[in-house]
Predict the 3D structure of the following.
Amino acid sequence: MAIVRAPRMRKREEIRARRRSLWVVEKESLVMRREEREGMRKRRRRMLIRARRERIKEAWEKQEKNWDSKKWSTSGVKISEATS
């Protein structure tokens, strides 16, 4: 013999189940949103690192060019001054 529940109890259980399922959906969306945010953060960080690397590289190349031009230019400097 099946347990016969009062209609009011059944209603209450249905409401509770619905709430629980809603909460699960809500929780999943929150988790997804958080993961998305973290992904964005990682992406932004990667972009910043890449940009920094580019800037360093450019500065380095500029410096190298300057160094090359300085190394070979002895104009305006007397050799006696340079060697002393």
The radius of gyration is 36 Å. Residues 73 and 79 are 12 Å apart (CA to CA).
